[in-house]
Design a protein that fits this description.
Length: 205
């Protein structure tokens, strides 16, 4: 097995941030504030919580866009080539379905960062990864609550390996640019390709 470089790990994180960035951008465009307030999810809470859901979802989306920009710039500063966006299909039609997927993505993101941080050599990049991971955990807690789940269920969060995370993310990926080592999922719920090494991390999967 080849050595995993810091650029490999950052591109792995960028792959997930691209997915989340597009997901929230599409979601905020798909539902207006009144639709969100009238959703079953919002109606479970009082006005203070329900009236803030739309803005908070948009804020999470801005966070993911910022993460994407920061990771892209860092990879370029290190002389690497940032992975591009893929084409995604998320399969929701209602706001309740949207936040259920959002919960899955955010909890997956926490597990991904927890697993990836140990692979980074540069101490400054470890700090950067940790500060993103804690924000992803805040997103996950909020979305757990909106989905009627315990916001912070355990004393320790899971740390999952790249392959498991990429297999999960592959369920939303329809198509990626040539050379990324990700499979065409067809309907957005397909698997991922275990072959190929053009992505900068594919050979470790």
């Amino acid at each position: 097995m080849d050595e995993v470089t810091d650029v490999d790990v950052l591109n792995y994180a960028l792959t997930l941030e691209h997915l989340e960035d597009v997901f929230y951008d599409e979601g905020v465009s798909s539902f207006d504030e009144e639709t969100v307030i009238q959703s079953d999810a919002a109606q479970r809470f009082g006005d203070f919580v329900s009236n803030g859901i739309y803005d908070n979802i948009a804020r999470i989306g801005r966070h993911e866009a910022t993460h994407t920009e920061a990771l892209t710039a860092t990879i370029e500063d290190l002389g690497g080539e940032p992975v591009p966006e893929c084409t995604y299909e998320f399969g929701y039609s209602t706001f309740n379905e949207f936040i259920a997927i959002a919960r899955t993505l955010e909890n997956t993101g926490v597990a991904a960062y927890n697993g990836a941080i140990a692979l980074i050599d540069d101490p400054d990049l470890v700090t950067t990864g940790a500060t993103i991971a804690t924000v992803e955990a805040r997103h996950a807690s909020y979305l757990n609550l909106l989905n009627e789940a315990i916001p912070f269920p355990e004393a320790f969060d899971d740390a999952k390996p790249m392959q498991e995370i990429l297999d999960a993310a592959g369920g939303f990926i329809v198509e990626c640019p040539d050379g990324m080592g990700m499979a065409d999922g067809g309907n957005g719920r397909g698997g991922t390709d275990n072959g190929g090494d053009g992505s900068g991390y594919g050979r470790y999967r």
